[in-house]
Amino acid sequence: MGKIQAFDVTFKDNKVVYSPGESLSGTLKITTTEALLCKDIKVNCQGFCGVTSKSNDTAWTVEEQYFSSTLSVADKGTLKQGDHSFPFKFLIPASVPTSFEGNYGKVMYRVRAFIDTPRFSKDYKIEKPFYLLSLLNLNDVPDIHGRSSSSVTKKFTYLLGVKTGTVVLKAHSDMKGYTPGQVIQLTTEIHNQSGKTTGSVVACLIQKVTYQTKKPTIDLRTLVQVEGAGVKAGKQAEWKEQIIVPPLPQSSLADCGLINMEYFIEISLKSPEASFMLPIHIGNISVDITSARPSRPPPPATDPSHYLVMGARGQATEALPTESHSQLGVLSSQATVSPSAFSYAPGLTFSQNQPRSDATNTTGPLFCVSTGATIPFFSEGSTNPKPTLYPLLPPEYSTSTLPHEAPPSYVESCSSNT
């Protein structure tokens, strides 16, 4: 580095995770091997979002800046040989989004330092990232209490079109919002009103990230996939399955206008082809189920599938076995059963009592910024980042080829009954 032997930015107490409205303090340290003439020494604190339509491209198509503050720590003069320390302090605005890193965009925060030298001399610069966590309290999400549910009725032909049949597919999750480490309790009912065995039933946890470029780019990822057996002709079956929520970025990105995050559970039959989405939320503070109000009884059903189900209730409902379960690796230690190197075993169950995650809990992965190959997550407080040691996506799953048909919106999913 020529006359500069050391040029570094350090944060107070080595803290790297901050909250909106918090102050950030640190020190710029410079060690020179000989006297250095400089015009100015500045420290800049910046937060911004950049998105692009090309994967892993940092030549941003659209940018959104949240703040940029610059502090001059030394005026024009000569920096003598030796060690120099320049303290700095910045106030982070109260309304800024949580840090995020995806294939087509990032919400980034960084501190940069500059040494401006006279003309024809070498300038110096350095930057150090920090992360921002704005806790998502799921209890603040509208209509968060209760279950996420939907159904679809599929009429089809078989035996070369000679015969017709109907399949009714219904499913619900035990809650609408979860935190990493909690378990999604999923119940699916299949009513096979035909003379043909159905194909397998599949449940997938899907992440949808929308990047607002000139033409919105949608990145869909299958995070977990579970597959159950088919249902025999004329039978009705119930399939109960559990999905551990891995460390994931929170739903939506409040105060960010360029990136939106959504999560769904997709329920589908392979044959006849039928599917729908159950929208869910991922947050940092768990749903308080003790404050949930009793739900009103549902109105009388007018959907024809309702009468098909009613007519089939005279039959015994069979328990549908799970054929395969692909789940992420090491998760929070809060889980009742460690899912390390997880493979589904019949009869394996998790506690019905969901572990709570809140701002005072320092053991869980409260903060996840990435959808990439690895996830750095952080406990609340002044602890150092703890990078995970496992891939976010199993090898058999990959990002869908774009452009991709987007899943229905939250409102469309909630209102769809056919």
TrEMBL record:
Region (Disordered): 389-418
Name the record gives this protein: Arrestin domain containing 1
Entry's Gene Ontology molecular function annotations: ubiquitin protein ligase binding; ubiquitin-like ligase-substrate adaptor activity
CC terms in the record's Gene Ontology section: cytoplasm
InterPro entries, per database record: Arrestin-like_C (IPR014752), Arrestin-like_N (IPR011021), Arrestin_C-like (IPR011022), Arrestin_domain-protein (IPR050357), Ig_E-set (IPR014756)
Alphabetized Pfam families for the sequence: Arrestin_C (PF02752), Arrestin_N (PF00339)
GO biological process: nervous system development; protein transport
Lineage: Eukaryota, Metazoa, Chordata, Craniata, Vertebrata
